[in-house]
Write a structure and sequence with these properties.
The complex is a heterodimer of chains A (230) and B (360). By secondary structure, chain A is an all-alpha fold. A two-stranded antiparallel sheet of chain B has the order 1-2. In chain B, helix 3 packs parallel to helix 13, helix 5 packs parallel to helix 7 and helix 9 runs antiparallel to helix 10. In chain B, 54% of the residues are buried. Chain B has one domain: Glycosyltransferase, CATH 1.50.10. The chains are: A mainly alpha (230), B mainly alpha (360).
Chain lengths: 230, 360
């Protein structure tokens, strides 16, 4: 970390703490917005909901637009840490604690991928993209049904949904939960979850490429400071 | 003495005839021949579309159903008949997991294990006893009960889901009960009573269903409080599955829940569609399959609907499936791929099993 980065962090500390608190609050209240009480797989479902809340909190509260790569990764790590705290604090999710390393890795990489996009794109567009991809089993379902569920299209749907990535980490078939089964035609057709390693590799593409570019080209576009982009 | 012997002989002939008459499935003889040819056509399709590893569609579930279609057909196929029977068995055995499940995927572990047990039981080979026992234990552990934190007043109590701790549903539990029943699971095991509790909570019969949404037509919906076709409405596929589940779980023909389900099937009798389903076409072959199995388990061949019309279900299902069979011997649902009915290997296996039930 450069002296410049440290100075920026110190100056922004109160605001950063407030944003982190808001992120934590959002993660905490996110399960209230979704009906999970009756699900037998409550731990996995709650962990998925917490994770989704963590990603949205990252996109809403982290100053990603124009941020340095280091700052983006720092926020991803912070939000992932918040997620782990909630997963461990909640008695309902503690049972699936053995899966949290995998979940943390997915959330970090997913956050990093979206965070890197958010450095260049307006946050609203990235949040919209996240929502669009998260709900791909809902809106793509009728199209798959119409096309008789071709294997390639089904795989595409499964690979691009961030919820699938989270579910893969938790070994959790979220499409068979009551809500998704009711609203997603994908759940009624043949599908399979992607391999966990494939998901990791896929999500690592953008972050790794950004890091390589940062250290190979020393592109100034990746070294924004708060002064240039307050 | 001679007279007494002749008398005894006549009695023997009479009793034998009577016994055969009772076993007569009452399918029209000409139709029976056509139905058997349709079965042969379906089995031929399955045989030439079998993968090198012995599977169909690389799926444990479809392979087990295809295997069952062969083993329970009028041809009486068995392992002695060659690789087209032994290789699917090997495929199933190659997918046994440490927890006793038989599945190539974490999804559908209940379905896959249940239909595998049914198929392995149909081989009649004692060598699979340990595999079957482990599979039974896996299914038993899937049942939602006190061990999972659910008391018997919960709508999910006694149910079984897809096998990954998901919410239970009638389709999954009917398959599980069929697998347990086919493999002669302990009739005193609490699984049956708990299953009856769950199955009763999926029936639209408020006298035996304590759920607020329960109506009173006697039919079944998919899971407590939900049907994929609308609200909590009863529909054909699930009502037949409900009837079968009740019978497997120990309820007899005199049980009012069984009678109510049977009455729903009588009064909504049709093979033109899956009655109550969206557009009538979703889950159509699933309906044919479980319709034939449930009425076969119930016994008899003729139903009388509420208008007094008689229906010989064996004739009707045979005629319907014969009319829908493709030239290559397969069946497929061209109207809806839901519940995998766009897969001709699955739908052909289901159709042959339905014909087998009607013929046997």
């Amino acid at each position: 970390m450069t002296f410049h980065d440290l100075r920026w962090t110190r100056r922004e500390l109160p605001a950063t703490l407030v944003k982190l608190a808001l992120a934590g609050l959002l993660i905490a209240v996110f399960p209230l917005a979704l009906p999970v009480a009756n699900e037998p797989a409550r731990a996995e479902l709650l962990a998925t909901v917490y994770s989704t809340g963590a990603i949205i909190a990252l996109l809403l509260f982290a100053p990603l637009h124009g941020a340095s790569l280091r700052n983006t990764f720092g926020w991803c790590a912070a939000v992932t840490s918040l997620l782990l705290i909630f997963v461990f604090l909640d008695p309902a999710t503690r049972a699936s604690a053995k899966l949290t390393p995998a979940l943390a890795l997915i959330v970090f990489l997913l956050g990093a991928t979206l965070g890197i996009l958010a450095r260049r794109l307006p946050p609203a567009i990235v949040i919209g993209l996240f929502a669009l991809l998260a709900l791909v089993p809902m809106w793509a379902g009728p199209m798959l049904e119409l096309a008789n569920n071709p294997v390639w299209a089904n795989r595409l749907v499964m690979y691009v949904s961030p919820l699938t990535a989270l579910a893969t980490a938790l070994d959790f078939d979220y499409l068979r939960t009551a809500w998704f089964y009711e609203y997603s035609a994908v759940a009624t057709m043949r599908y399979d979850y992607p391999n966990f390693v494939n998901i990791i590799l896929l999500l690592a593409v953008l972050p790794v490429a950004a890091v390589i570019r940062r250290y190979s080209t020393k592109d100034s576009a990746f070294q924004y400071s708060s002064e240039a982009h307050p | 003495m001679k007279k007494a012997l002749l008398h005894a002989l006549l009695w023997c002939v009479f009793i034998t005839n009577a016994a055969f008459a009772n076993d007569d499935p009452s399918m029209d003889p000409a139709l029976r021949e056509k139905a058997q040819r349709a079965v042969d056509g379906g089995l031929h399709y399955l045989r030439i579309n079998q993968a090198d590893n012995g599977s169909w569609s690389d799926s444990v579930g479809i392979t087990a159903l295809g295997l069952r279609a062969f083993l329970q057909s009028h041809r009486n196929y068995g392992e002695r008949d060659g690789a087209f029977i032994t290789r699917p068995i090997e495929f199933l055995l190659a997918h046994i997991n440490d927890d006793g499940s038989i599945s190539e995927t974490n999804q559908n572990r209940n379905y896959n294990t249940a239909v595998s047990l049914t198929a392995l039981a149909a081989t009649g080979n004692d060598e699979y006893a340990d595999v079957i026992k482990d599979g039974q234990n896996f299914l038993l552990k899937l049942q939602i009960d006190e061990d999972d934190g659910y008391e018997n007043d919960h709508a999910y109590y006694g149910g079984i889901g897809y096998g990954g701790d998901e919410r239970p549903d009638l389709s999954n539990i009917h398959m599980a009960l069929e697998g347990l029943q086919a493999t002669s699971a302990d009739p005193d095991d609490p699984v049956w009573d708990k299953a009856l509790r769950f199955v009763s909570r999926v029936q639209n019969r408020s006298e035996s269903n304590d759920q607020e949404w329960a109506a009173n037509d006697g039919g079944f919906t998919y899971m407590p409080g939900y049907s994929p076709h609308k609200g909590t409405a009863s529909y054909g596929g699930m009502t037949a599955a409900g009837l079968l589940s009740l019978l497997f779980a120990g309820a007899d023909q005199d049980d009012p829940r069984v009678q109510a389900a049977y009455d729903w099937i009588r009064n909504n009798y049709t093979l033109e569609e899956n009655p109550g389903a969206t557009d009538g076409v979703q889950g159509l072959y699933y309906y044919y399959n479980v319709f034939a199995k449930s009425l076969s388990a119930y016994g008899g061949s003729v139903l009388v609907d509420d208008e007094g019309d008689e229906h010989n279900w064996r004739n009707d299902i045979a005629a319907k499936l014969i009319s829908l069979q493709s030239e290559d011997g397969s069946w497929v649902n061209p109207e809806s791929p839901r519940w995998w009915e766009g897969n001709p290997q699955l739908v052909t296996a289901w159709s042959v099993i339905a014909l087998n039930a009607a013929l046997n």
